[in-house]
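Schema walk-through. Below, the input block comes first and the output block second. Nothing else is stored per chain. Lengths vary across the set, and this one has 206 residues.
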Amino acid sequence: MLLGHEIIVLDNFFTGSKSNVSHWIEHPNFELVRHDLVEPFMVECSQIYHLDNFPDALPRSWQSLTRTVKTSLLGTLNMLGLSKRTKARFLIASTSEVYGDPEVHPQPETYWGNVNPMGIRACYEEGKRVAECLTYGFARQDEVDVRVARIFNTFGPRMNPADGRVVSNFIVQALRGEPMMVYGDGAQTRSYNVSRGSSVASPEGG
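--- output ---
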């Protein structure tokens, strides 16, 4: 927006909040629409950033397992259809969860994962896998210009304190003066990503 682009944000606020974008509401180039991506949306656009996500650590996400996979499937299909019609460049935010319970660390792009389609996390994992499948399908069949970004453990301002992941847990525990819980033997490794870094890297990502 600061560069003059007009931005339309779609959100059903199932896990998000209007307060996350309240600082943009009065900007003349910003429009916020309450909309669920499982329903088609018609607009003219040149770029689509498909960022739908159910934070898999939130209890509310676990109470809506079928909704999670439905959003990944139908939401992605609708946004790809919009991209095809408008010839807009399409970027989807995927996740490291597509690797399932990986047996290779770190995971290279050539690794196909170790997945369990019947597991408790399957609706999220398989939802994102089918979303990637649809994205590459539209690229091959309909020549849609696509990008897939597998974003790992992103953190940043205005996160839900009950997110349930390690960095937010550490911060909340520190603010409360509680001991910071380290699970296992403390030898685990993780990759972390700051949200500002994601926004800078994604637009031109391959």
